[in-house]
Amino acid sequence: MVADALLGTVDIAAEPAALEADFRAMTRAAMGKAVAGVVLRL
To answer: Which InterPro entries match (predicted)?
Structure first.
């Protein structure tokens, strides 16, 4: 439900050895998304 609400997907690392590669792929995919009118405060 969370992934649908955020217009994303749900994936799990099938093998622990592939965790780093899966994380890199998910990060690369997330950085390719854009949303207009977003403000980020740190």
So the answer is: vWFA_dom_sf (IPR036465)
Tens digits of pLDDT across the chain (42 residues)? 887 888 887 777 678 888 888 889 888 888 887 778 888 898
How is residue 31 written in tokens?
Answer: 């950085």
Distance, CA of 11 to CA of 18 (rounded, Å): 13
Is 42 a member of any domain? no
26: number of Cβ within 10 Å: 14
* 24 within some domain: yes
Q: How many domains does the chain have?
A: 1
Q: What is the CA radius of gyration of the chain?
A: 13
Give the pTM.
0.46
